[in-house]
TrEMBL record:
Lineage: Bacteria, Bacillati, Actinomycetota, Actinomycetes, Mycobacteriales
Protein name, as recorded: DUF3618 domain-containing protein
Segments crossing the lipid bilayer: 54-72
InterPro entries: DUF3618
Keywords: Membrane, Transmembrane, Transmembrane helix
Length: 73
């Protein structure tokens, strides 16, 4: 009987440790600052791809030309 009680207490202690570790991992994953940083890094990575970078440069050049034309007229 005493062995069963000790075994159950050890299992409860182990379950508490496992739960604490899981909660710590969830806290790290759900950290708003980390989530914002991850989103920012992904956006920067997408913008830095050649197709997007050159596309944005082209759009910028067209806007500059249109603004200059509007000022000149």
């Amino acid at each position: 009987m005493a062995g069963d009680t000790e075994r159950i207490e050890k299992e409860i202690a182990q379950a508490r440790e496992d739960l604490a570790k899981t909660l710590d991992q969830l806290a790290v994953k759900a950290n708003p600052q980390r989530l914002a940083d991850d989103a920012k890094n992904k956006a920067i990575a997408i913008v830095n791809t050649p197709a997007v970078k050159y596309g944005l440069a082209g759009v910028g050049a067209v806007v500059v030309v249109l603004v200059i034309r509007k000022i000149v007229r």
